[in-house]
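The pair is quoted verbatim underneath.

:::
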Amino acid sequence: MKFFNHKYIKPFKNPFVIPGIGFAIWMLFFDSNSYLIHNELNNDIDELNEQKEYYINEITKDRKAFKKLNTEEGLEKFARETYYLKRENEDIYIIEYEDSLNIESDE
C-alpha cells in the first residue's frame, strides 16, 4: 500500500484527473477539431495568403503593362518587338549576337 501513498500518485486519486487527461488527449489528437488539424489548416492559410500576395503583384504588373499598351507608342513598340511588324516602305534588320541565341552546344 505504500505505492498508493507516493507523492506522484496522489493527484491521480482525484476522480476528475484521469478523465480530464483522457479528454485533453482526445481533443489534441483524435477530435475533428484537433490541434494537428488546426496546425495543418493554419499552414494552408499561410500558403494561400502568400499566393494572394503573388497574384496581387502580378495584377499590378499587368495593369501597368495594359496602360502602356493603351498608348499608340506602347502598342507600336509591342508589335515591333514581339511580332516584328513594320510600316510600309520600312526595312527591319534583326541582329542577334551569339550569346543571345539559344543553341545547345555539343561540348
